Amino acid sequence: MGGADKCLLRVGQLSILERTVRTLSKQSENIYLNVNGDASRFAQSGLEIFADFDKSLGGPLYGISTALSYLRERHTDAAYILTVAGDCPFLPEDLLPRLLNAAQSGTYEVAIAQSLTRNHYVIGLWATSIKTKLDEFIANKQHSVGRFIRTLKNTQVAFEVDQIDPFFNINTADDYQQAQQLDKL
After folding, report:
1. In this structure, how many other beta carbons lie within 10 angstroms of the beta carbon of residue 142?
2. Does residue 1 lie within any of the structural domains?
3. Domain CATH for 131
């Protein structure tokens, strides 16, 4: 997508970011936006925004580490943090409660969303207690989210796909056109 901020793409009447906030605000009162790069470009979102500590590194694990640090500063009693990708316009209305139920059912360190037997590693509920493990993993020059998840006590939560995969993500211009069509269903 040429380096564009995919979360600002409009699908139907709303940007993906607006759709995400609308969906998640029904599930949580605390919604934050983590960005890699200049956070000011999202100032109009009305969200509390924080940027990755080291903007040169990038990648989902750095964002998760930054989010965990940010959360610890503001909500010291938080046991979990939910992460979602910024390019998924059709997130389910029951994402957080289902992941939380799964995480708590077996004292899992992470509960990951799954659809059509595909794991969506960035869309997950992470125990805040994993921060040290995550930072050690990153310090060892490891960057694979899937590989990190396999080092944790983890579970997957399968979400039904009716007409639309709730974790459909936009990576190409064709995906974007498909999202526009799916939104009309």
Report:
1. 14
2. no
3. 3.90.550.10
| Inter-helix orientation angle 131-139/60-74, to 10° | 140
Residue 145: strand, helix, or coil: helix
Inter-residue contact 120 to 81 (CB < 8 Å): no
- CA 167, 119, 112, 171 torsion-angle sign: negative
Q: Which of 159, 2, 173 lies closest to 91, judged by CA?
A: 159
Q: Exposed, middle or buried: residue 68 (CB in 10 Å: 0-12, 13-18, 19+)?
A: buried
User: Comparing 31-35, 38-42, 44-48, 83-87, which segment has the lowest mean pLDDT?
Assistant: 38-42
Tell me, yes or no, whether 124 lies in a domain.
yes
* 8-state DSSP, 92: -
With respect to residue 105, please indicate whether it lies within any of the assigned structural domains.
yes
Q: CA–CA distance from 104 to each of 75, 146, 155 (Å)?
A: 19, 21, 10
Whether residue 57 is contained in a domain is answered as yes
List pLDDT tens digits, range 81-132.
Answer: 999 999 999 999 999 999 999 999 999 999 999 999 999 999 999 999 999 9
Domain count of the chain?
Answer: 1
Q: Which domain holds residue 18?
A: 6-183
